């Protein structure tokens, strides 16, 4: 079965569209040949015509074989001029099926976007229509109404027309021929001339509107959302369903979220980490209740190349079962607690529901934090601190208000004790979206994985745990909340471009200046404004394209959601002002003061206005309900329900069941044209709002549940890129059969996938598809993109070595496209210098360049041998005919491509070069802990009282020094464990590679000095001044000396 036919089968199952029959036969190229194979089978035989009109709009017409398909008549019926057939090559390219296989089902292919589906009315009302299933070796029967459903579900406009049978004339045409012609009056001619002309839509070669969106948010939300995120430059659809390419504007938002959240959790003592994406079947199934919550969504890797793996390997749906065995190893004593780790990564949950970019996807980016604590109170406190940070991300960055609350017992995280949540509301479709969750896990997982510690009193206890996550779903919520019929509306704090400056060409010379003078003055004003904003931290673009009108530029940047547009024209110059146009409100204002200060104030005002407008929608969207009879009307009015509830699982089940049944029966009658239909689906609990959220119902004594009539209660918990997947046939440059075998996912839960999905070893194939689509003109160049992610490499001949030879490798991969070879060569040189400098400055490692044809490598030589670790590959691929662009002279030219890849084998090199027989030796620039302060107790023989007095003074001096160093951003801790001797502590921190160890005893207290032990050479320096400058000087010298030592040794 072909890939297209297999994908069709999955799509039909997803939409719930059954096939009446399937008839296999030999390949056919015409309708007549198909009909010969359908003897004795009931159903209307269909013919398919692929057409285009003068404006390059494309139409797929499916008609009864007995209907007359005169192109002139059809053109009149669908208001299309000069209809003609599309040539075979173009048809195959756009519909994605070979000649002889044209069918309405081809509309599911991404290449068919923008094709209008025209259906013969006789087929629309038919019980059985005979068409091909995206291949000409079979014919299937499908209900006519389901053909319409299929086309609409794949985002295509459907037009139904009445076609006459062969040999007859259309009734309307016949009637017109028989009727006498009325005399034409002059007034009618004038009226016709005054009638507004239909606005011409600018389209590309596929008939797709390029200048904006044509769907209305309140009329067709699904289509609007698809157009906004694709035409607004946010995503590109991937050939693996449910996976999407996130373009640079999206990743800019995600990195803003990362930076803000990282800075906040760092203050809470949370540290970064990275765990593998794979988990064994036995480990995943170890926690039964937890895995049952994810079982249908788990993707399983069962093959490496064509060979079966000994045991299926799961791709993480979440990381509890991956991380917690390590927690059990690391945690032994109360001194090891709290342990707080966070990782930014991707997760796979193989959803079988209709995927929606950002909201419901099979692969998504997220942050997940996991902590272990000695006490329940400490764990719960962190749960709510994280919940407040999530609210901060939504409201302060994305300008989206959320309701904080606690999930019901049925909706909480599988295996946890309680789940807190931030819930967002999308007013235009009446739906709520779970924005982020923070879970209190209790000791459930600790008992399962043996995360046990010895407490201060010597007793054994299980750790109290939390987990919490925030995903790229947040970006989808932001789009839905703020976007309008013109496109995206981005909050200034996360917009990649905050301001666009548009010069307005003069239309005519004024009294003071000539046209040429005006144009020069406008250009100089725009440039001056740009330089002021750019140099003061405003993300600004000057759109001075000469081949585009101001109106085109306005639409272009409005579609992309740029918060503020600044217009500079001749009238503005005369008045000494510029015009501010705010994207969120469309409000225009002429500003005499327009330096970076005023622009930043305007951007902050826009940020505040977006949040306040969204808060108003949320407030208006919540209805307080105390009676069951008010539930369905409120839901159908697209409202959230706030109601007193008894919080029993039985009532929650019944509420879902009853509302699901009633939603199927209800029809909403409105007085408005195009009134909204009833919402489908069951009502489910979102959260029980926290008192602090401001959305909790006041519930006097005796308040009854809105559903059961029992006493209501409140839960008493006090203050919770390029995709990983590629097609099963990778790009030839990605996998060498002699080196790596592609990992393949063949099942999800207990279901076998229709077609295996490969895990990427490289992003080349996906990147090339994107680049070939994004690059059209010389104005698109240079284009440089990169991503951080996992590379999957199966090799049965490898002896796996951490960092150097792994099945999962963390890597950075980049792609740069230039107009000329000189630009590419210059970029390669600059890239190599950047990585060499980073290697030296951060890791204290010397590196050497090596060459092999068009490839350049950076290698770290090993100590006293000829081995080298290659960590960077730069490929100057030269001219690439698959990436043509239109140059400034109008000619099509191939672009020049540079690709590069760096993986974390460089960390393995650092360990091997600097480590010694005592353990790791980590350069200060990258060491998580740069300094450890160890108090040295005085001798016991001086007497108990004097010992205590001096020990207290030593500990106080250690604490003062640590505080001083932390204020200077030196990563420093104190090891004051009274049960361990100084020698043990020194050995422990030497093993972990901490660059500097500071010892403070009574002698150092008396002389106000410190003793410094330098890890890399074991040098011990006495009587060093006790200040931060001394420590900074030592850290700098350690980095330099480690690099010098590595150079001499290699």
TrEMBL record:
EC number: 6.1.1.15
Keywords: Aminoacyl-tRNA synthetase, ATP-binding, Ligase, Nucleotide-binding, Protein biosynthesis
SMART domains in the cross-refs: ProRS-C_1 (SM00946)
Pfam families, alphabetized: HGTP_anticodon, ProRS-C_1, tRNA-synt_2b, tRNA_edit
Residues of the signal peptide: none
Reactions it catalyzes: tRNA(Pro) + L-proline + ATP = L-prolyl-tRNA(Pro) + AMP + diphosphate
Gene3D superfamilies in alphabetical order: Anticodon-binding domain, Bira Bifunctional Protein, Domain 2, C-terminal domain of ProRS, YbaK/aminoacyl-tRNA synthetase-associated domain
GO biological process: prolyl-tRNA aminoacylation
One example GO MF annotation: ATP binding
PROSITE patterns: AA_TRNA_LIGASE_II
Record's keyword annotation contains Amino-acid biosynthesis: no
InterPro entries: aa-tRNA-synt_IIb (IPR002314), aa-tRNA-synth_II (IPR006195), aa-tRNA-synth_II/BPL/LPL (IPR045864), Anticodon-bd (IPR004154), Anticodon-bd_dom_sf (IPR036621), Pro-tRNA-ligase_IIa (IPR002316), Pro-tRNA-ligase_IIa_arc-type (IPR004499), Pro-tRNA_ligase_II_C (IPR016061)
Any one Gene Ontology cellular component term annotated for this protein: aminoacyl-tRNA synthetase multienzyme complex
Residue stretches making up the Aminoacyl-transfer RNA synthetases class-II family profile domain: 253-491
Enzyme class: ligase
Record NCBIfam families: proS_fam_I (TIGR00408)
Official protein name in the record: proline--tRNA ligase
Record lineage: Eukaryota, Sar, Alveolata, Perkinsozoa, Perkinsea
